[in-house]
Write a structure and sequence with these properties.
- With about 150 residues, the chain is of the alpha/beta class.
- The chain is built from 5 helices and 5 strands.
- The chain has a 5-stranded parallel beta sheet with strand order 2-1-3-4-5, sandwiched between helices.
- Strand 4, helix 4 and strand 5 form a beta-alpha-beta unit.
- Helix 1 crosses helix 5.
- The two termini are about 15 Å apart.
- The chain is about 40% helix and about 15% strand.
- The longest helix is centred in the C-terminal third of the chain and has 18 residues.
C-alpha cells in the first residue's frame, strides 16, 4: 500500500549495470502504481542521496531501496549496514537484488536487516518476471512506512 496516495512511490535503485537499470526502469514505468525512480550508480552516491548531502540536499526520501551488492566506490553490503544503522533511514525497506548466490551474502544481509534477498536471474524473461513480481508485491501489496 502506498504511504501517501497523493504522491508517487519513491524508489532508489542502487545499481551499476546499465542494462539492468534500463530493464528495471521499463518494468516500473508500466506499473499500475505511480512511482518515481532515482538511480545511484555507486554506493557513495547512494549514501549522499539518502542523507541529502551536497548536491542531493533536495533529494526525495525513498519509500523503498533496490540495492545491488557489488558496487563501485562503496560496496552494497556496506551501504545496507549504513542504512540500517542510521536512525533516519533504517525504516526504509531495502530489497537486495544481486547476482550473488553466496550463502554468506544471504546470511550477512539478513543480519543487517535486509527486507528481502533476490538473486537476479540470467534469463531475460525470468528477470523481467522477477522485477514485475517485485513491483507487484512492494507497490501493490506491502504497506510501506510513512515518509
Amino acid at each position: 500500500m502506498r504511504p501517501d496516495s497523493a504522491n508517487p512511490i519513491e524508489i532508489l535503485l542502487i545499481e551499476d549495470n546499465l542494462g539492468d537499470i534500463r530493464l528495471i526502469e521499463e518494468v516500473f514505468k508500466d506499473a499500475k502504481i505511480d512511482n518515481k525512480m532515482q538511480v545511484a550508480l555507486d554506493g557513495e552516491k547512494a549514501m549522499k542521496m539518502l542523507r541529502r548531502e551536497g548536491e542531493y540536499s533536495q533529494a526525495s526520501r525513498p519509500d523503498i531501496v533496490l540495492l545491488d551488492l557489488n558496487l563501485p566506490r562503496k560496496d552494497g553490503r556496506e551501504v545496507l549496514k549504513e542504512i540500517k544503522e542510521d536512525k533516519s533511514l533504517k525504516c526504509i525497506p531495502v530489497i537486495i537484488l544481486t547476482t550473488s548466490t553466496a550463502e554468506e551474502d544471504i546470511i550477512e544481509t539478513y543480519k543487517h536487516n535486509a527486507n528481502c534477498y533476490i538473486t537476479k536471474p540470467f534469463d531475460f524473461d525470468h528477470f523481467i518476471k522477477v522485477i514485475s513480481n517485485i513491483e507487484d508485491f512492494w507497490l501493490n501489496i506491502v504497506k510501506l512506512p510513512p515518509r
